[in-house]
Write a structure and sequence with these properties.
21 strands, mainly beta, 17-stranded antiparallel beta sheet, 2 helices
């Protein structure tokens, strides 16, 4: 019998030392992964030949994508890989805090070992580095997606009996969006008629290659400048007229955006997904949004001295460790 694609599973484990493989002892049932080799070759055609006479393999690494519904439990894996965070646990609830540094290294960022395959054959990719992230919330769904890279794929066997992380999707009826004038007041002014919000972290890491036979792929990942952008689609009503008027009067003031989802009860608290950002708003366009006269407002997160950063995430769930 042939190998059915439906039986190929992906498992992940957090590395203690980047690039040193570990048991991939977690399954994330709400995230779909795909991964494959990326070969960089160098062709050469000598004089007198009409076709290439040499084709050299220069470097090999792995690249892939992930996507799925936004969930309270599984979103912490890409956030831990891109930003890095801390966790505190009390009363059966874990509070995960992901504070992105505007300058200096995000030293808590994690790398992972990723396994894919079945009982017949499997491969692993060590030094899996989550590299970017997109979150989109519409009236029909909330989803997360992004890219990652890793060292070259190697044959392996799947780690047995991985822990399956409980699935708890963020329901679109659990979202509120706030836009305030001060960081101290963030979470005060709720947008009455938001229609959609999108948030994106661009490529945050580069694969550093060296002339060293120990590292046939890349040696390590390094941070690079990146952008944090998004857009909010709202009904063009009296609330938005006031926002627009204030923007015109004040030039390009910083506004503080909060995207917040409050989930089911968890001990003495509730499940939570929250993103805060200090933003410069960018006027976009008025347009029909599913029959609603809407306004698309772009934003770009910038470093803010009051907030101490440009953006951050907080997640409360029942997961105690990656």
């Amino acid at each position: 019998m042939g190998r059915a694609a439906v039986n190929i599973v992906y498992q992940i484990g957090v590395e203690t030392t980047p690039g040193t493989g570990v048991a991939a002892n977690r399954q994330l049932p709400s995230l779909s992964f795909s991964v494959g080799p990326e070969l960089r070759t160098q062709p050469f055609r000598a004089n007198g030949y009409k076709v290439d006479t040499i084709l050299q393999l220069q470097r090999e690494m792995a690249k892939g994508k992930f996507e799925g519904p936004l969930t309270y439990n599984e979103v912490i894996w890409p956030l831990a890989g891109i930003i890095g965070g801390t966790v505190s646990t009390s009363g059966g609830a874990s509070t995960w805090t992901f504070n992105a540094n505007s300058s200096g290294a995000d030293t808590n960022a994690k790398t992972f070992t990723l396994e894919c395959g079945d009982a017949t054959a499997a491969q692993e990719a060590v030094y899996t580095q989550f590299n970017n992230l997109s979150i989109s919330v519409t009236k029909s769904e909330a989803k997360v997606s992004g890219d990652f890279f890793a060292r070259s794929l190697e044959n392996t066997t799947l780690t047995s009996s991985p822990t399956q992380i409980a699935q708890l999707p963020v329901n679109i009826n659990e979202f509120d969006i706030y836009l305030d004038d001060t960081f101290g007041g963030i979470g005060t002014t709720k947008l009455t008629d938001p229609l959609q919000v999108d948030f994106a972290i661009s490529d945050k890491y580069l694969a550093k290659e060296v002339l060293n036979t120990t590292f046939q792929s890349f040696k390590e990942s390094i941070e690079q400048p990146y952008n944090v952008t998004g857009k909010v689609m709202v009904e063009y009503n009296s609330q938005w007229q006031a926002v627009y008027a204030a923007m015109k009067a004040s030039g390009l003031p910083t506004r503080y955006l909060r995207l917040k989802a409050t989930g089911p009860t968890l001990g003495a608290t509730t499940y939570l997904f929250q993103m805060d950002a200090a933003c410069k708003l960018e006027m976009a366009e008025q347009k029909d949004q599913d029959g609603v006269y809407g306004y698309e407002l772009g934003f770009r997160a910038i470093h803010d001295s009051t907030m101490g950063r440009a953006y951050s995430f907080q997640v409360i769930n029942a997961v105690t460790a990656l």
